[in-house]
Design a protein that fits this description.
The structure holds two protein chains of two kinds. By secondary structure, chain A is α+β, with helices and mostly antiparallel strands. Helix content of chain A is about 55%, strand content about 15%. Chain A has three domains: about 10-120, Acyl-CoA dehydrogenase/oxidase, N-terminal domain (Butyryl-Coa Dehydrogenase, subunit A, domain 1, Orthogonal Bundle); about 120-230, Beta Barrel (Butyryl-CoA Dehydrogenase, subunit A, domain 2); about 230-380, Up-down Bundle (Butyryl-CoA Dehydrogenase, subunit A, domain 3). Chain A contains ten helices and ten strands. A four-stranded mixed beta sheet of chain A has the order 1-4-5-8. Chain A has a four-stranded antiparallel beta sheet with strand order 2-3-7-6, covered by helices on one side. In chain A, strands 9-10 form a two-stranded antiparallel sheet. In chain A, a hairpin with a 3-residue loop joins strand 2 and strand 3 (about 145-160). Chain A is globular. The mean pLDDT of chain A is about 95. The radius of gyration of chain B is 22 Å and the shape is globular. Chain B is an alpha/beta fold. In chain B, about 30% of the residues lie in helices and about 25% in strands. Classes of the chains: A alpha+beta, B alpha/beta. The interface between A and B is medium-sized, with 13 and 14 residues.
Amino acid sequence: MIDFSLSDEQLALKDMVRKFVQAEIIPNAHRFDASGEFPHEIIRKAWENGLMNPAVPEKFGGLGFGITEDVIMNEELGAGCLGMTTSIAVNTLGLYPILIGGTDEQIKHWVTPFLNEPILASFCLTEPGAGSDAGSLSCHAKDEGTHFVLNGSKMWITNAGHAELFTVFATTNKELRSKGTVCLVVPAKSPGVSLGKHEDKMGQRCSDTRAITFENVKVPKENMIGQIGDGFKIALKTLDKTRTPIAAGAVGAARAAMEYAIKYSKERKQFNQPISNFQGIQFMLADMATKIEAGRLLCYQAAWALDKGQMKVGSYYASLAKRFSADMAMEVATDAVQIYGGYGYTKEYPVEKIMRDVKLVQIYEGTSQIQRVVIARHLLED
Amino acid sequence: MNIIVLVKQVPDTETKIKISGDKKSIEQGDIKWVINPYDEFAIEQGLKTKETLKAGTVTVVSVGPDRVVEALRTAVAMGADNACHVKIDQEMDTYLVAKALAEVVKKEAGQLVFSGKQAIDDDQAATFGYLAELLNWPSASMVVKCEITNGKAVVQREVEGGTRFTIELPTPAVIAVDKGINTPRYASLPGIMKAKKKEIKTYSLADLGLGSEKPKTTASDFALPPERQAGKKLSGDTTAQVKELVRLLREEAKVI
């Protein structure tokens, strides 16, 4: 029995996030995009209203939300500002390795503080030389009995400049590739940790993105999540869970772009009539709406499968959702700028920002090309 | 202190109102229902008062069909401790609503009532006053500031021209609040989750001893406002336009 409706709580959740976005995010998005400043206040308010760390299980004092709730929240946040969405949502990415691979004591120790204070965590996998080829990590963790010594660097780490905690994926033996990897919890203030500059990005500009360098950083063995060799697996399981909400953020951004374009097309007159009278514009809007619905449904399907514990097919659906939603959002945002014409090309109108923001979704959390590799692998396996 | 907050569910302000075929009501089918915005200020004021006094409970009450339960749960998600639903499925008027509310206030041992100054659907601004009369309590409306101390409420009312004047009422009292008194908090996500498990007390009119009561007023007719006329465009040079404008203002619009 297929049911496309949301429960009362899910509707209340959607409503609340939408209100928050309208009051706190939308009025400020443009300003933070222009300056690239980190939206501290807004993140604090999001935390105060329970919008962060939704996945922490109830037994540890969290909301125990599933991927479906995460998808609902991220679509609404994405419709407000993807930069702020990333800043808020990436905390979940940073903590998931501990929730997935950690013991109860580790979760209590490392995760509970995030429920008590508006602090941030960063997920540190990507390196200057390891992006799509995430298995070829160079960041090295030398096993010295009671502790590891960490050396190397990470790149494009979100929230790095403001995080209390890094979940770092490193290798103990580069020759073993993914089988030698380890996941370590590294407090940001550990001696030997240094941060690069806040990258000056095309879009999602208020999201803090930096390089991190580790120089002989001592990491106690208790900070290891799982065992040596588990690191890469934990990273992949984390990404399995976060891929779908990220896709939902793109759906939200695309939806916002379409709504702006619809409104503008009714106001803008050329040839003595609103441009919404022209089939050329109408066809663009119709295609935008179709793509957005399709993206949303792929997200819900992936969320449903993952929440039911169907991790293999859920991961596959998540790749479909991410690949499709990121690419369609870019198309929708580009068309929205097109509908706005010259005005849309300026920063005074909201659509060029969405186009710049959405481009990144095709790149992070697995590029659209890697998603296709994953999807094809699924289709071709026996 | 037992604080009661009156909550009404009204159509969202963006709703395109359609009148029913018999012209005696509005079509309810497509309506998105929201908490009356002025009642959101009332809920917040109830919560703030409880926080300032560091004691007491906040109980929200709404009169209406089953759909108002959603409004009550949102209020609980904001922080209200208890919720009462007076379930009705008949025509009501201010009199009957106020009578029902008065019974609930008595049952809940209410010592202070907050309400919005008016509901944005019928704009009658009458319920709070009617309720106060039935309870024999003093009331004040258009309240933009309210302090509860030692058996009295000290309130500021804002009237025409932005003038504010301060009055004191002994509690128990009914305070009808206006925009500007506070900034309503969001229903937090943990609040929404807790609210779904909260038990809501349901009363019928019979439970309140009002089973045989009937409304004293009924709506006889609903009509949409007249269609906006197209504007007139004046032509000619400035002097001619001014002459014509003055003539129209005097002879047609009859405002000078």
